[in-house]
Fold these 2 entries.
Entry 1:
Amino acid sequence: MALFGKKNANYISSKETKRISRENRRVTGEIEKKRNRKNIPESEYLTRMKNPANVVEFDDVHTYFFTDIGTVKAVNGVSFEVPQGKTVGIVGESGCGKSVTSLSLMQLVQRPQGQTVAGEIRFNAGEKVYNIVNTPTSVMQKLRGNEMSMIFQEPMTALNPVFRIGDQVDEIVALHNPSMSREQVKERTIEMLEMVGIANSQGVYRMYPHELSGGMRQRVCIAIGLACNPKLIIADEPTTALDVTIQAQILDLMRSLKDKINSSIMLITHDLGVIAEMADYVVVMYAGRVVEKGTAQEIFKTPSHPYTIGLMRSKPVVGKQVEKLYSIPGKVPNPINMPDYCYFKDRCELSCEKCGGRYPGVIKLSPTHEVSCYRYEDRREAGWLAQVELGASGRERQQEEKGKEGARHE
Amino acid sequence: MKKFIVRRLLLGVLILFFVSMIIYSVERSLPTSYVDAKARTMSQKQGAKPYEQLRAELNASYGLDKPVIVGYFVWLKDAVRGDFGDSWVWNQPVTQKFASVIWYSFALGAMAFLLEIMIAIPLGILSATKQYSKIDYAVTVFALIGISLPSFFFATMLKWVFSINLGWFDLYGIVGRMHETLGSAGKLLDMAKHMVLPVVTLTIVSIGSLMRYTRTNMLEVLNADYIRTARAKGLSEKRVVYHHAFRNTLIPIITILGNMLPGLFSGAMITETLFQIPGIGYTSYQCLIQGDIPFTMFYMTFLAVLTLLGNLLADILYAVADPRVRVN
């Protein structure tokens, strides 16, 4: 180990750390002070939607984490919108900022280290439109769980182990419906538990989380999420911790419930199968930025960004024989000190000279399909890269056959 | 649950048997012997029998001529019938002497215990919810001072400030000079006033560890997924901390509190000695250094019983606080 040799990229002296943390405290202190003011006037956080048919509009959102080794730009200029009654899928590898994007929307990013420092998140709550970035916590508490709700990725730990299921669902119902009597609240809870497909709802009402299986707990989480008929449901990898049969059930359930209460879903996942099943629109994120977005059809038929193509290729397909499943080479770059060129350049198999320039701008391939890649600067027709990729997989197939022949010879 | 408690109680009896046996063996092997000392003083009197003879006679009358194991069973036979014998040092039944001193210690311990809980747990929660703030650092420094101060030093400082310089309290003792002239309420107040400094000493030196423990647990709980769920429901920060997080923080704290139960009765030897409070800590120390086997045996066994009960109580409370460990 080069303990005293040349510095590695992550090495940072204690002096430097101290300087950074002092600077961080200053920056976060300022933001916190601004946020913790009393009686913030409504004009500071009420705004207008660009398109009233949307529930949420993310507009150039930046959420940073101020850590002792530097600022992590977890969400770095994300823009997309969620139309009413539609499902938007957000895909990307672990650590690409999907969850932080959704937590920014709920204002649940771990403060004071995590802060949304720039951009607007416009949330359409019916009569009023909130800019979540500036909304004070007291107002957020009325929105959370009521107008927007979140289903978390770990059903095993997302429920409080010391309270009964009934109490935990009751809590959210009673909180946002103060006029309801206790019996009404309980009635509503039982109704919700039945709606998410829990047969023994009276029994489960009296149970503790540890007495339920993972799938059942996820159902309870969904019941909590849907209890107040929210306009927007954020599902953060709702099926990742579940086995495949339960996955399908949970997805079916979410889809039917969405139609029943006519809300929008923001579905965060790294499972392309789930996206294909559920989403109307797809947003592909990489290293804190949106690299491509479009309708599900566009993304799956004509994936355009090399990263999206890589994602598609690394998904196993039933009936297709491959020697080894494709994987995108390299790893996500260090989130501190991101380079100014395309973040994917170092892993990209299709990078060209131009890619060394500034971070590529957004290029519209169709009214709904947008991509950030220099490859499309002059060639506007969508999907030509998909052809390239087909060629590549053709080559693979050839090699595969060769390999088989070799094996036979031996 | 009933089954569990009965099993634990039966197990406790077995443990107690061995614990008391070990204590008795250790007592008998101590280098200090009450009988030796007594024989020596008696032999120095004029016209007394020689030391060896006296010692043999005394040993026989105190039952120390028998081997350790036999001696233990003799003690045990009386003890299970509730007869713990007479204290050699105090010349009165062990239980009587015990009853006359325990309440001082209990009052001292109980007040310190209550204060400790009332101060340490809220402070721990406060410093956890405001992690890395000025309040957090202030509380931590305060706790560390408390942990690192030796009680004899702190007690002396308190005496110097409050008794000598300010003259608010007496230097030591449990009653004031005019105690006998006071009415019954006045007597009680007088004793309470004498308890102030010892209680403060005990509280300050013990507060730190519980506070730090609460803080660590609270921090861990506050980072849990279910706390994020609670926030996502739209609950106020108060409800998140004091309802959702607190119940989970309680679980490990209860174990500690259960283990502190015997501490209520064990007395605080150093503090009691410094303030000359005739409590159990002071008394048992006197008995121990003079080799008073009946009293020490009773006291140690009593503590062992309390420890076992404390553990059982902690386990029961644990099940109350945490539904996951409930035995069906």
Note: Chain B has two domains: 2-94, 97-292.
Entry 2:
Amino acid sequence: MTDSKPHFDEMFISEGAPRAPYEPYHNWFAGEDIKHLRRKSAEAEAFFRRIGITFNVYGQEDADERLIPFDIVPRVISAREWSRLERGIEQRVRAINAFLHDIYHRQEILRAGRVPKELIAGNEAFLPEMIGVSPPGGVYTHIVGVDLVRTGPDEFYVLEDNARTPSGVSYMLENRETMLQMFPELFTNMKVRPVSNYPRALRRSLSASAPTCANGKPEVAVLTPGIHNSAYFEHAFLADQMGAELVESTDLRIADGRVTMRTTRGYKPVDVLYRRVDDEYLDPLTFNPESLLGVPGIMDVYRAGGITIANAPGTGIADDKALYSYMPDIVEFYTGERAILQNVPTWRCSEPDSLKYVLDNLADLVVKEVHGSGGYGMLVGPAASKRELAAFTRKLRARPANYIAQPTLALSTVPILTQKGLAPRHVDLRPFVLVSPNKIDITPGGLTRVALKKGSLVVNSSQGGGTKDTWVLGD
Amino acid sequence: MLGRTAGGLFWMFRYLERAENTARLIETGWRIALTRSEGAETEWESVVNTAGLRDAFLSKHDSFDSQAVINFLLRDRDTPSSVLAALGAARSNARMVRTALSSEVWEATNECWMAIKDALARPVTTRTLPEILAAIRYRTAVVRGALHGTMLRNDIFAFARLGTFIERADNTARILDVKYYVLLPSAAFVGSSMDNTQWETILRSVSAERAFRWLHAGESSPLAIADFLILDQRMPRSLAFCCTEIRDNLAMLEREYGERSPCMDLADHLCNTFMSRNIDEIFEDGLHEFLSDTLTAAARLAGQIEQDFRFNG
């Protein structure tokens, strides 16, 4: 999808005139040789390949592990911009946790008529098994990766909340590590807030949500589907950095009301399971009898308070794209404040008036499946052919409630390094948020994804996007 | 440690060792093919037999042509003992146990895989073979160096070493077993050039020809070679050396875990068969029987280790 609308560039006000946060970088860059930087960029790629930061693309089983391209021009966010984002994110995450607790208990928000009942009752992402269950410490979303886009100096929109199992944090950490190694001088000139504390903070945050049966130092384990999963590198990386075991479901079994893992010395209880598998692969007894994956009986242990599962099962309801359109109401309902971060205007195709509007303006809109993620199954109107538009029209008419539509936003750009020097490309931002019973901790930075193709607005790594290091400046 | 992780470490190092051993066998075969034109095909056949891949090879090829054997042993994706497949399996296991490895060991393994996979992307010719064999030797040595230089001496290290020495003992026993007849006094025409070459082949397949010459001042005899490869504790590929390493690493696990497992009794028993006999007695009782018994005992020990430490549940 391409877009020629005027957009906000985060580095340049106009040709050669940088915005304030980028000034030191711009001065440094002016003294550098492009060829030398291109070489550095190739070095970075070799480095990533050596340490094995790769991902596998779904549906390409034979394909080699691929690298997510890394661009060496950092994305810079000023202290003032960040502090506003921080407040907005914290407010939103607080509201989401309150919403999840409410929706699985008294459902006040439905009684108050602020969110329609049908949206919950008939929703696949709503887990009846979670009704009346209170997770240890009351935390539902231990880790959140809010996707933000920017359209102007002060205009940030939340694109998705990613309250299920957000990925990408290993790139945030490795991108910074790479930049520190390649351009140490930049970090002496600019006051960049560190991100390296994330793994320790994650371990602390998860431990703080341990069930009461954990004694002393809670045993934390990361649950991965295995080495063939596209995010396996990240699972291993986080387990390693946290000093936690990296387990697969075949390592786990239930014994004496606890979830235990098979060690060389017998079975040992796990207190906190940071799972990187979907709900439906958690417990074949509860969710998916066909599944060979999962730990039979883990949900019974969970309901009895014998283990913390992070994020809690059933949080996916907060990621539902139809529900997304109610987020401003949800924030207001639980916090009593107006939402600090904006929502992208969203048409719910389940509503006849909206459906009509969407069908009439399909070529200008982005249409998404309500349960979709990763950029799959979406229509980008301005980039679609007539045939694709016609096909999507039929899909929309057949199952309108399965879709929402949004305008194409004029996403901000940050320059990337090309053969000819700097060239603007569209970006988004995924900061990482840790929630524990008494604290919300947002790492200053996050994952900046960048559409490497000129004019493209699709930043997903599975669709040819790359990443950048994100620098939040200190005061 | 997870049982699956222990198993992953064990197999990672078994496969690395296997890749090295296969490369060494090819090197030996290659050397003979260079020095003797006749009988080269028999030698390649013997190489394939030693690698334990006779049936797998014959299902794809009609004759033991050097190009076919070299490419089969280096690049065949279907046989788990080819260098490419073994390194792929080693790297897969390394990915699985990544949290148990130092970053140096992981990176060395990953780079080893990337470099050798690239080098083996196209069929290997006699011109490119020496370079490729050198690369395999070098890359696997870097992994071993990283293991020794950067890893804690704890249970992780012990499982890595157990895999190495189980595989190595198996390999040395097989090399001897395939060639045992040239070591038998009855078949020996002492001093004939034929036997000298055969003996040298055996020593070369375990990279020990120079060490042996040095220790024996250039004099070789079947008994001395067998003694060196079976009983000599100084020789890092001898059966006695491998067994001692296996026993010591299991003893380390016993100390670390504070409990004794059945596999430790098996290892002690195996070690005793080497400590309690000299080479004359082994020849008297039958070299082939001795080697077969050793292969069986090593396989049984590997199975018991797998069970005692819950590699697979």
Note: The longest helix of chain B spans residues 3-35.
